[in-house]
Amino acid sequence: MPRFDGTGPMGCGPLTGRGFGPCNMGRRRFFSKKNELAALEEEERMLQEELEAIQEEKRALQDQAK
Predict the structure, then answer these.
(1) Does 47 have pLDDT greater than 60?
(2) Could you identify which of 2, 31, 49, 61 might form a hypothetical disulfide with 36, taking C-beta atoms 3.0 to 4.6 angstroms apart as the criterion?
(3) Quick one: which of 18, 19, 21 has its CA closest to 1?
(4) pLDDT-based confidence at residue 56 (cuts at 50, 70, 90)
(5) Nearest CA-CA partner of 2 in 51, 16, 39
(6) What is the CB neighbour count within 10 angstroms for residue 39?
(7) Distance between CA 60 and CA 48 in Å, rounded?
(8) How is the chain split into domains, by residue range?
(9) DSSP of 1-66, one letter per residue?
(10) How far is CA 27 from the centre of its chain?
(11) Residue 4 burial (C-beta neighbours within 10 Å; 0-12, 13-18, 19+)
């Protein structure tokens, strides 16, 4: 969280980021192997969706530049 004030990234609230902060990292240690796998699969899905959105925005900008 940017200012450690509980607002989360861009003021959207806690636990709304990509999970790279100290709060998420500490919590992950207590997952069982099954829960850890599910959490990683969910994180992978969210990152894939984010990548697809970035690629779509990039294509749109490239089309505008033509």
Answers:
(1) yes
(2) 31
(3) 21
(4) very high
(5) 16
(6) 15
(7) 18
(8) 1-30, 32-66
(9) -TTSSS--GGGS-TT-S-S-SHHHHHHHTT--HHHHHHHHHHHHHHHHHHHHHHHHHHHHHHHHH-
(10) 15
(11) exposed
C-alpha to C-alpha distance for 2 and 42, rounded to whole angstroms? 24
Residue 29 has pLDDT above 60, yes or no: no
Closest residue by Cα to residue 42 from 22, 15, 8: 15
Pair of tokens at residue 13: 């609230």
Residues with Cβ within 8 Å of residue 43, at least 6 apart in sequence: 18, 19
- How far apart, in Å, are the Cα atoms of 53 and each of 22, 35, 46, 50, 57? 26, 27, 11, 5, 6
